[in-house]
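Last lecture ended with a question: if I hand you only a sequence, what can you say about the shape of the protein? Today we answer it with a concrete record. The protein is Amino acid permease. Below, first the input exactly as provided, then the predicted structure, then a couple of comments.
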Amino acid sequence: MVYYQPISNEGGILLLSKQLIRSLGLWGAVATAVGIVVSSSALVSLGQGFGIGGKGFIIAMLFALFLNLCVAFSFSELSGIIPRAGGINHFTLPAMGPFVGMVAVISGYVLVTIFAGSAEAAISGFIVTEVFSVKINPVLVSIVVVLFLGISNLFGVKVFSWTQTILTTLLIGSTVTLGIIGLTGNATGTPVTNTLDFNPMGWGVLSLTALAFWLFVGVEFVTPLAEEIKKPKIYIPLSMILGLVIIFIADLIFGFASIKYAPLEGLAESASPHVDAAKAMLGDTGLIWMGIVTILATSSTLNTLISSISRMLYAMALEGQMPKVFSKLNRWGIPWVAILFMSLLFVFFLLIGITNSSSITTFILAGCLCWMVAYIIAHLNVIILRLKYPNIKRGFKSPFGFTFQIIGIVGMLYVIFNIFPDQTIKMNIYTYTIIFLTLTVVYSFCWVKFVMKKRIFETTPIEVLTSHTEEEEGESEQLNSPINEGKGVNI
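The predicted structure:
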């Protein structure tokens, strides 16, 4: 993150130092990629998926993993060209212009954050009051968690990195440990007799791909931190790929352990199958343990959402696509207004009670469907930029031409058309999605046309987005070298 800091005020002239903060290492980036994915809702999807498909659910998981690898390849190439905090918006500016970029960010990320993030925040309160039997308003607990994470994000990317690494390590470690205990027969519970067939659904198991997709969605949240990651052109693709592999292994271990101790029908119909499975393995100890894991998953997800979405808003404000107030940075180079805005959004939706409504699942899936639209835009960006700028420097290049982009687009369309098995809920999801996209399109159109006063599809030359990035990277190497450590660059 580039920010300006006063270093003297001689003769009434304010001198500034330009400092490029690159302090997030590989494991901090991996923790960011993993942290947003392993959420409470993802644990629910995991349990229900194995409950419906049995061991054959692994086929749907592998298909979903491949689709998300396509996403990782596209975002890695885009971030390698434009390693900026704006994420998908900055990748879209030179390909399809500010209008499409705004639609992608607002519909695919901000709306998802508002509904899915608020629901995740509510879960922490429910767990504390129900699993740990603490006599306190669950909404108050959720608000405290949100405010704690929001405030911690104000003190620099190092604090975020440490928080995220600790949360993710405990989360993945606990999930894998529980799974190993179950698989090795060291659990105190009694194994159950489930169907011995590996894949009783046959090819029908592919209809669970939409359910499996949520186990991996979100690894690209590491890209908005591109200006704060060391060696972003290497660490960003590596962190996404490692993150997907880590998630797959952890989910596989815990999933197979779950169906060893819990009946398939119970997992398929449960609203919290991961908690039921842990209780079946270790009784009350497993219940408390999974309660802690759920809180860790919720906190990790919220921490990543607050950090990454705020940087998207910050970068869009710099481009004139959002109110300028979001571009304000504090002394640690953190977009504090955007972080407070995201935190207060969570608090607002917790207070009005939308996270407790019966339709919250529909809201979340509608937001996630918008997420799929953003992924399709990312794949199209790769194709367009390859054609427009074939010789541009790329830190990472997706292999085999446009193969992964085409497969990714087709796969996203498949997930969209198979978003939910129940037709009534499916139509409700589509209705909310159309409402979300319509509001986003109208807002983005009016902002670009009347505030930015630009043509809707007016693209930004890629040289404008990359030239100063290369300059900043050069300055970063000087600033981070031993002889220049602690020194600023006067401008």
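Comments.
1. The chain is about 65% helix and 5% strand.
2. Residues 438 and 483 are 54 Å apart (CA to CA).
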